[in-house]
């Protein structure tokens, strides 16, 4: 008995250009600003605002590959499509696609846990069982909204993106004006500026921008996809660069590096207090709640579709476990369960680190696949593709070096996880690279 992924649920043209931008910025701003600002400052020191600039530059090189491929072949689960066209339906394409899906699940848990951290901050609760409980609750809410259909997701994405982009911009402008313009004071505990630390921080900045891949994965549902997928990616990255820089400078103007690091899981709320008083503090908490909820919504929407496409492509096995309905609904359930488990068992720093390792390995495989097999077909520039691979590799090496010093166990978890994915897919599919009937090499 065969099952479809529920193409009736994947309605062509059901997401407008503005809805797609709302979805892309929803994932990016939800994770980037609220979850990662403090962690980036911990690695980059006084110049942490510049880390976002370098992150945007590296992301722009990466985005080039996805824009070229999406313009040629827009589809839901687009990254799986890119990898299969490059490597054929073998273990490399399947494993890299699964890494992407897992990195998106990791983002869900990262943003959900950030929601819990900010919402509990007014009650001075920074740990304990309430943090994972609230994180799981917001993931379940995202599941219920997603089950109700694309229109609900698109409309909520637009409304929440407008609220949070306007609100975060307002916070940034007022806090920057109040705190004065300038970089924060250096840490009293630091030995000085570290190039390795700064480059490692760019890995987290890249994670803050990786929401643009959500757009790629929903390409088949965006109106006029051959034009709008690439345009959505460019607009989303541009909006996020401006917002990230504004907020990083605002936080740095009101807190020292030591203060940012001490409050790294809720640094925006902490920065709002000296700049805007108690009202500013609560305003930031509400803003964080809206931003992170929209981030989880968009991420659950995209990753469930990617997993459904992988199932249709026979790249991952599927079991119903007694559930009725289309595969798409089953994938929503699996996504939510896995994200909830991560939110319960890992803190924000470790969740972000796992996301970096999974995403950068997958990203390099995408660029290499397009360079090696599809460059001529999509008209891509080899120098840009090679630069994207080189930037990813440099950042990943620096990040790994820093984590081996501060938290070697998370490096081990990442290596075990990535290796398991590749070995499992190799056994499941029996070949590393299989010829693709649509695009033979």
Automatic annotation (TrEMBL):
It is found in: Membrane. The keyword Cytoplasm does not apply. GO terms for molecular function: L-amino acid transmembrane transporter activity. The chain crosses the membrane at residues 20-41, 47-67, 87-106, 126-147, 154-178, 190-209, 229-251, 279-304, 325-345, 351-371, 383-404, 410-429. Pfam families: AA_permease_2 (PF13520). Keywords: Membrane, Transmembrane, Transmembrane helix. One of its GO terms (cellular component) is membrane. This is Amino acid/polyamine/organocation transporter, APC superfamily. It comes from Jannaschia helgolandensis. The lineage of its organism: Bacteria, Pseudomonadati, Pseudomonadota, Alphaproteobacteria, Rhodobacterales.
